[in-house]
Amino acid sequence: MAPMSAKPRTPSKSASSPITLAIDIGGSHLKMMLLDPAGKPVSDRLRVETPETPTPKAVLAALRTLAKPLPHFDRISAGFPGVVKKGVTWLSVNLHPDWIGFPLQDQLTRLWKRPARVTNDAAVQGYGAIRGHGVELTLTVGTGLGSALFTDGRLCPGLELGHHPWRKHTYEDYLGRRGLDKYGEKKWNQRLQEAIEQTRKLFNWDHLYIGGGNTKKIDFTLPEHTTIVPNETGLLGGVALWREWK
């Protein structure tokens, strides 16, 4: 695994509890950061490469090692790249088959003896980006294609646009890393433009947010009411899992 991206800084003395350990599980990297009750960072973002064979056991071991330098936290929020229902992961085509039916939320609680909440990674990113007005859509272009839809700040759970049939394959086949490698950046950008227009017609969104590591490869002018959000957003939305879910 690659080394940590930064040494964590000690949380500010003004930071009050509860402190949230925000985790972003990705097909390429695992990331984490501590957040204060308002969702503001109180540590640097730490990152390592996702294990080459990303089984639940390997990923949890890597997360435990990554968190060792961090000080105390009170609870855990995690974004997972796939379908999550009641804290159980049911599908993740970009990780490993062993994630099917895996009780990730319970396992994170057991690992750190702290309460945990888990949902789709694009949903966490969306919570960190949205303004809470109208219909807002989040897309993440990385190893796969993540998606989350919100209406007036409320998540519409279960959306997996990446696996929906589009053209001859699926959105993810064209816009995920496989599509980028197969078709090249020029064609990938053309397909992304088409997909943005398709989602606008499908969801009639008021604002679209695009995140993920491959946003740096976008070379066209984005349409009105479309914003690129930084990778850090996939962690900053973690506090919302405790605010929105009663």
Describe this structure in words.
The chain is an alpha/beta fold. The protein is 29% helix and 26% strand. The strands form 4 sheets. The protein has a 5-stranded mixed beta sheet. A 5-stranded mixed beta sheet has the order 10-9-8-13-14. A hairpin with a 3-residue loop joins strand 1 and strand 2. The chain is globular. The relative contact order is 0.16. The N terminus is likely disordered.
What are the SSEs and their pairings?
Layout: E1 20-25, E2 29-35, E3 46-49, H1 56-67, E4 75-80, E5 83-85, E6 88-91, H2 104-112, E7 116-120, H3 121-129, E8 135-141, E9 145-151, E10 154-156, E11 165-166, E12 169-170, H4 171-175, H5 177-203, E13 207-211, E14 226-228, H6 233-236, H7 240-244
Parallel strand pairs: 1-4, 4-7, 8-13, 13-14
Antiparallel strand pairs: 1-2, 2-3, 5-6, 8-9, 9-10, 11-12
CATH class wording of the largest domain: Alpha Beta
Strands across the major sheet, in which order?
Answer: 3-2-1-4-7
What Rg, in angstroms, do the CA atoms define? 17 Å
Helix/strand order, N-terminal first: EEEHEEEHEHEEEEEHHEEHH
Strand content: 25-35%
Shape: globular
What's the tally of helices? 7
Mean pLDDT: 92
Which CATH-level-2 architecture of the largest domain?
2-Layer Sandwich
Helix content: 25-40%
Q: Remind me, CATH topology of the largest domain?
A: Nucleotidyltransferase, domain 5
Q: List the quaternary state of the chains.
A: single chain
> How many β-strands, per DSSP?
14
Q: How many separate domains make up the residues?
A: 2
CATH superfamily of the largest domain: ATPase, nucleotide binding domain
